Amino acid sequence: RGWDDGAGDEATTSAQGVLLNSEGMTAPSYLDLIDRRTSGGRYDLTPLFAEGSALSALTDDLLAGFEGTPFDAVAGIDALGFILGAAMATRAGTGLVAVRKGGKLPLDTVDRCTFTDYTGAEKSLELRPAAVQSGMRVLLVDEWIETGAQASAAVDLIEGQGAIVVGIAAVCIDRNSKTAALESRVPCISVWRGDD
């Protein structure tokens, strides 16, 4: 996995094993808190979220990518997007819209979007009625975007209610043709870029 400064610059690793972008800048130190010794091809971001100063710095870095972009609410994708989304909404002074996994809301939902996730499993997302209003500007947040399928489904769900997704923020966006399609559709910011 590599790091990108958000401008598309490729990352390299120094002889000391430190992540560097093309200008020799080091990756944010809080990324070191991500547990990479996991199974199943996923990393565990919860140690980063558990460290208050690291979560605060991550929140600031992601919001800085949308400086000058007004938004009315942050929408967090179930489940770890809720953690990061709540931190960002609190810092930005907005509310949090919960984009739930299908079948989790204990009431009738407005709409449901189905997608195939990075494992090949079919899943769905849903919103509570009146969670977003027509014309509302929404910043969408998830912790990791592997293929963009879940984030695209969330964009469809939110925009299907007449709201506008002004951008997507994530800790990491993997680099592949599917995420490239998402990034051409909606401005995306991450502090780490996964390699193909």
Task: Offer a few descriptive terms.
196 residues, alpha/beta, seven-stranded mixed sheet, two-stranded antiparallel sheet, 5 helices, 26% helix, globular, disordered N terminus
Brief summary:
The chain is an alpha/beta fold and 196 residues long. It has five helices and nine strands; from the N terminus they run E-E-H-H-E-H-E-E-E-E-H-E-H-E.
Describe this structure in words.
This protein has helices spanning 46-50, 52-64, 80-92, 149-159, 177-185; strands at residues 12-13, 19-20, 73-77, 95-101, 112-116, 122-126, 137-145, 164-174, 188-194. The strands form 2 sheets. A 7-stranded mixed β-sheet has the order 5-6-4-3-7-8-9, with helices on both faces. It has a two-stranded antiparallel sheet with strand order 1-2. It contains 5 helices and 9 strands; from the N terminus they run ββααβαββββαβαβ. The relative contact order is 0.16. The longest helix has 13 residues, at 52-64. Helix 2 packs across helix 3. The model is unreliable at 1-25 (pLDDT under 50). It is of the alpha/beta class and 196 residues long.
The helix fraction, in percent, is: 25-40%
Question: Secondary-structure element sequence?
Answer: EEHHEHEEEEHEHE
End-to-end distance: 8 Å
Molecular shape: globular
Number of strands: 9
- Give the averaged pLDDT, no decimals: 87
Number of helices: 5
Biggest beta-sheet profile: 7 strands, mixed
Structural class determined from secondary elements: alpha/beta
Radius of gyration: 16 Å
Strand order of the largest sheet: 5-6-4-3-7-8-9
Strand content: 25-35%
Low-confidence stretches: 1-25
> What's the assembly state of these chains?
single chain
